Amino acid sequence: MNIQLEKLELIKLLAETNDESIIASIKNIFTSEKKDFWNELTAEQKFEIEEGGRQIDRGEFILYEDLMKKYR
Q1: How far apart are CA 28 and CA 16, in angstroms?
Q2: Tens of pLDDT along 15-53?
Q3: Residue 48 and residue 11: Cα distance in Å, rounded?
Q4: Using an 8 Å Cβ cutoff, are 61 and 55 in contact?
Q5: Are 17 and 23 in contact (CB under 8 A)?
Q6: How far apart are CA 23 and CA 17, in angstroms?
Q7: Is the confidence at residue 12, as pLDDT, over 90?
Q8: Angle of CA points 26, 31, 33, to nearest 5°
């Protein structure tokens, strides 16, 4: 895939459209990519994720492969 060619094709399609919903959707894609999901989480969600990291650091986890062996 030639990324530059893909960009030019998208620019052409965008320039030719008058559909406001398409333009709004594209704009939404670019603005949503800039958000850091961490800032959208609650304090409780952040704590749970951090606690999971601490559990891994303490060795309190099961490997996926071992879990699958147990239930197959």
Answers
A1: 19
A2: 999 999 999 999 988 887 667 788 889 999 999 999 999
A3: 43
A4: yes
A5: yes
A6: 8
A7: yes
A8: 100
Check residue 54 and give left, alpha or beta (phi > 0: left; psi -120 to 50: alpha).
alpha
Tell me if the pTM is above 0.85. no
In the chain, the amino acid numbered 19 is D
Contact 61, 51 (CB under 8 A): no
pLDDT of residue 33: 63
Residue 67: what residue type?
A: L
Is 90 exceeded by the pLDDT of residue 1?
no
CA 25 – CA 8 distance, rounded (Å): 18
27 half-sphere exposure, CB direction, 13 A CA radius = 6
Q: Give the DSSP letter of residue 35.
A: S
